[in-house]
Amino acid sequence: MAGPNGTEAPAARWKRHIVRQLRQRDRTQKALFLELVPAYNRLLEKAELLAQFSDKLQPEPNDVTPTTHQGPWEESRSNSDQVPSPATLRMKWQEEKAGLRLVCGEMAYQVVEKSAALDALESELEERQSRLVALEARVVQLQETRAQQVQQVDARRARNVAQRAAYEALRLQSRLQEAALRRLEEEARDLLERLVQRKARAAAERNLRNERRERAKQVLMSQELEKAAKRTVSISESTDILGDEIREKAEMTLTLPAEPEFLESEAGEKWKRPFRSASATSLTLSRCVVMVKGLLNFKKRRGHSIGGVPEQRYQSIPVCVSARLPTLVQDVLDAHLSEVNAVCFGPNSSLLATGGADRLIHLWNVVGGRLEANQTLEGAGGSITSVDFDPSGSQVLAATYNQAAQLWKVGEAQSKETLSGHTDKVTAAKFKLTRHQAVTGSRDRTVKEWDLGRAYCSRTINVFSYCNDVVCGDHIIISGHNDQKIRFWDSRGPRCTQVIPVQGRVTSLNLSHDQLHLLSCSRDNTLKVIDLRVSNIRQVFSADGFKCGSDGTKAVFSPDRSYALAGSWDGALYIWDVDTGKLESSLRGPHCAAVNAAAWCHSGSHVVSVDQARKIVLWH
């Protein structure tokens, strides 16, 4: 039966298949009986023939003469002179009958066997037919599933085509936006260059005006002094009085008052005295003029005017003459909500900053042997890994795990600037001695120099290993790395000037105040003092029980560079004598976890240590 689409219905197909299978079975079974049936028929015919022979051969009671019978015995009789007796014929007939019965039994047994085989084949055929029906049902189900999947594939292809079209549209839009972004960056770069040029021109004009004003003041001062020198004076007073007046005049010239009439009136009052020796007086005044001009020139050379030295440096921090070894615990606090990673003293030794994994920086005052909370600096984008005060003590710089360093002004709770540009965790951030400049190191294998005035990266140094810490000298940057090397960079040159290998990953660096010695801490559980004058390792410190607790363990010099201090994994502080290399003392007490960092105040009287269990400890 044809279906609606011109194809046979599934029922007609499986019926036709069953008919074909039955016909095939008939052919195979018929072939088995083709030889058996004729043989059986022949046996039946022979049995009937023998039955007739037996009936004819049985003699009648009154008849002695055997009946005439045409058969095979006649042939034998014609061929033989003697005729077999009926007993012999009966015996032969019995033998043939027994043979035929045996053959019939064998044939019957074969018929039974063939019937059993036929039944087995019929049962197998029925089983296969049932399997065929199940398989056909499975085929129908699979065809339906296939049709559904084909529909799904078609729908997904259509959806992929739509998504590809949307993707191409987004790609075109992104290209347009990238082109617009490049144009905006070029415009911003041009605007920045023009702004810098305008600022440079404004600074040059301001410097020129200041120089003109200074020259005018100097000319006016010279005229006033020459006028005062020509006046008559009396030197009846003692020479000391004249010296005092000259000193007063020099001080007056250094203050540079704006009103020339004030100078004239004061000079007139001071120098209206009887005249004794004009030559002596004029010589003294000319020496005073020369002295004032020298002071003015010295002031200009020192850069007090805007047109002086371009690099503005911080004032030097007083150097500690003799540091005191800490022995006692004065205060213990839970400073943060989680582990504390960094600590640093301000230049006045009374202000302290700590930074931790809770993204906060706490400022503390050291008052009377106690730590008093001063302020909390917020806004860090990640865990604090390093904190540093600028030499003036007015700003705090911190490195964070948020791929940036952040700058705070002391007294303001929110971040002032964010130095973004690294692509991985920032592990160190330090101020340079030059104002408005800083250096950061990161796990993205770069060291960057920053112009803090514009929050702009002025230089990027690419390194082959993670940077764990950096320190800065006058014109040198030193970085410690994960590949067990300390690298030196000249801030005025593009390349690395020197590499010093150490054993173990470098965890921290500390530069002495005289910038002649460098202290490094590494994961081989040793501290090393490097003499920068000969670029050689001078001392190696180690101790039984001392072990770095992390890749951020910080070690520091004492302010007078007499001692080296580091915290261990078991909460102990170890102090070595730099000159002798011997372990001076080990401090144990409040810390029950690994000490991450320690700081020695600039006066040399206090030490602060922080650990992974949120504690901050003040030692005296």
UniProtKB/TrEMBL annotation:
Coiled-coil intervals: 111-205
Please provide the record's keywords in A-Z order.
Coiled coil, Cytoplasm, Protein transport, Repeat, Transport, WD repeat
Q: Where is it found, in Gene Ontology cellular component terms?
A: Atg12-Atg5-Atg16 complex; cytosol
Show me the WD repeat boundaries.
333-374, 377-418, 419-460, 557-586
Where is it predominantly found?
Answer: cytoplasm
Which one Pfam family would you cite for this protein?
WD40
Aminoacyl-tRNA synthetase among keywords:
no
The biological process GO terms on file are:
autophagosome assembly; protein transport
Q: Gene3D superfamilies in the record, alphabetically? A: YVTN repeat-like/Quinoprotein amine dehydrogenase (2.130.10.10)
- Family per record: Belongs to the WD repeat ATG16 family.
Protein name (Swiss-Prot/TrEMBL): Protein Atg16l2
